[in-house]
Design goal:
single chain, alpha/beta, 2 domains, nine-stranded mixed β-sheet, six-stranded parallel β-sheet, 17 helices, about 45% helix, about 20% strand, binds GDP-alpha-D-glucose
Length: about 475
């Protein structure tokens, strides 16, 4: 296999505390297995012209190549086009989206500078794997820069159906840009269907071949489903070790034998936290026997703090947690412990293991790694129960969770009650079924399958006549 070169908007540098976020968690686990290069923005902005050459750090077989961005461009490309437009649109939040041509231009120009700085680093046998919605045009721009190697793209978030996508003034350009890659990966069948609907709209139904490959002009590309997973063995080992640490022991002692329900999410409106808090309040009202007997810990590290919608959701959550605590708390009990803190991953895994219930109720999510981490972290002899949104990609695989519609707060509150009273035999049965899937679709299977598809795509391009329909 050639050298794997992963490219993402932001990279997690070694020794800096890990930024919470599924993309970084996934890429780092993949690169630790294969070695290779991780290229992306290092987190620094400048008012002047950024240096033309990336900064290079090598650690544990991974080369980290980081670039700087100009502050003004970063705001327009990252806060603006990526997170005020593509993120809400792809998560079906039309009300939250805002289009600006200036931001669109900055998106193109930042992608161009990624291509200019990346292409001189590439070697003849490299396999290039671009990640996520910030970098959709990068494939086209790398081709323009003369890169001939296989190019893969993985979308970590949902891909909307064409009727939704058409709201974007540049939707055709976005779809065309995707066709410059050799392999396009999605989290679920549903996302792939969304992409197919766009391809059909733009190029006609005949562009989608019976073997699932897509023909655009004289190129053939693979669009497939690669559900991202977690490193199950390391998550299990981390969780077991974390139970012996002071921080996890102190948390468990502080529960005073109460049941624990936990949520771990970046603070993001797509994660359904406002609805979840309201479901929890309804749960305490509807099933008052639980008052004083359960503690709900919600860990929600801040993210994208410069984007307005994130400031708004933060305020709404503080108010919601305050309302429930104000109404139900006692001198020796707080119903919700709401923490906007970032914890080390090991500590989180201990918290997940200690929990009786994991609550993962996004309003829309590409996959949701926390759901899989919760399953991996459990004690198989006495596992907790997962409550999972049907609108998370993970629900496609974790059918043995208690599946809920996150908008239906009554159903979610009922699921909380069901989870807390579930007999051991049923908990074990559901957990075992989920663990099997989480193991099968783990992080190495995600990485290997994607890299294999990328290698196979080389053969597709070199044998166009065999593949012609
Ligand atoms: C995107 C897609 C898709 C959370 N808090 C802390 C922390 N985390 C870690 C979790 C988990 C990751 O961050 C979050 O991943 P998710 O998948 O849940 O969500 P997104 O960040 O939105 O990820 C998502 C994912 O990409 C991968 O493709 O599943 O659908 O939206 O690993 O454990 N990690 C640390 N401290 C925290 O406080 N260290």
């Amino acid at each position: 296999m050639g050298r794997l070169v992963c490219v993402s908007n932001r990279i997690s540098l070694p020794r800096k505390s890990a930024a919470p976020g599924g993309l970084a968690v996934g890429i780092l686990s993949a690169l630790k297995r294969t070695g290779g290069v991780w290229f992306g923005w290092g987190g620094d902005t400048t008012e002047q012209d950024p240096p033309t050459e990336p900064d290079i750090h090598i650690r544990d077989g991974v080369t980290y190549a980081t670039i700087e961005l100009r502050q003004s461009e970063y705001e327009l490309y990252y806060n603006g086009y990526s997170n005020d437009l593509l993120w809400p649109l792809f998560h079906y939040f039309l009300r939250g989206m805002r289009y600006s041509n200036e931001e669109r231009d900055a998106y193109e120009s930042v992608n161009r500078s990624f291509a200019q700085k990346l292409s001189p680093l590439l070697q003849p046998q490299d396999l290039i794997w671009v990640h996520d919605y910030h970098l959709i045009p990068l494939g086209r721009l790398l081709r323009e820069a003369g890169v001939k190697r296989p190019l893969g793209f993985f979308l970590h978030i949902p891909f909307p159906n064409i009727e939704m996508l058409r709201v974007l003034p540049t939707y055709a350009e976005l779809l065309r840009d995707l066709t410059h890659y050799d392999v396009i990966g999605f989290q679920t069948e549903n996302d792939l269907k969304g992409f197919h609907s766009g391809i059909e709209h733009l190029f006609g139904a005949e562009a989608i071949r019976s073997d699932g490959r897509i023909r655009v002009g004289d190129r053939v590309l693979r669009a497939e489903v690669f559900p991202i997973g977690v490193d199950v063995d390391s998550m299990q080992a981390e969780a077991i070790a974390a139970m012996e640490t002071d921080v996890v022991k102190r948390m468990i002692d502080s529960l005073m034998s109460r049941s624990l329900m936990i949520g771990v999410d970046r603070l993001d409106y797509s994660k359904g936290l406002v609805e979840r808090f309201s479901a929890y309040q309804q749960f305490l009202e509807t099933y008052p026997d639980n008052i004083g007997r359960i503690t709900y810990i919600q860990i929600a590290p801040l993210s994208r703090t410069d984007v307005r919608a994130y400031a708004d959701i933060r305020k709404a959550l503080e108010q919601a947690a305050g309302r429930t605590n104000g109404r139900f708390a006692d001198t020796d009990w707080t119903p919700i412990r709401y923490l906007n803190r970032n914890f080390p991953h090991g500590t989180l895994s201990g918290f997940l293991r200690a929990a009786n219930v994991g609550v993962v109720t996004p309003l829309r999510d590409g996959m949701n790694l926390v759901a899989k981490e919760f399953v991996a972290a459990q004690d198989i002899d006495n596992p907790g129960v997962l409550i999972l949104s049907t609108l998370a990609g993970a629900a496609r695989e974790l059918g043995s969770a208690l599946l809920v519609n996150p908008y239906d707060t009554r159903a979610v509150s009922h699921a909380m009650q069901t989870a807390l009273s579930m007999p051991l035999a049923e908990r074990r049965e559901r957990h075992m079924a989920m663990l099997e899937v989480v193991k099968r679709n783990d992080i190495s299977s995600w990485t290997n399958r994607f890299v294999e598809a990328l290698e196979a795509s080389q053969r597709d391009q070199s044998r166009p006549r065999v593949l012609a329909s």
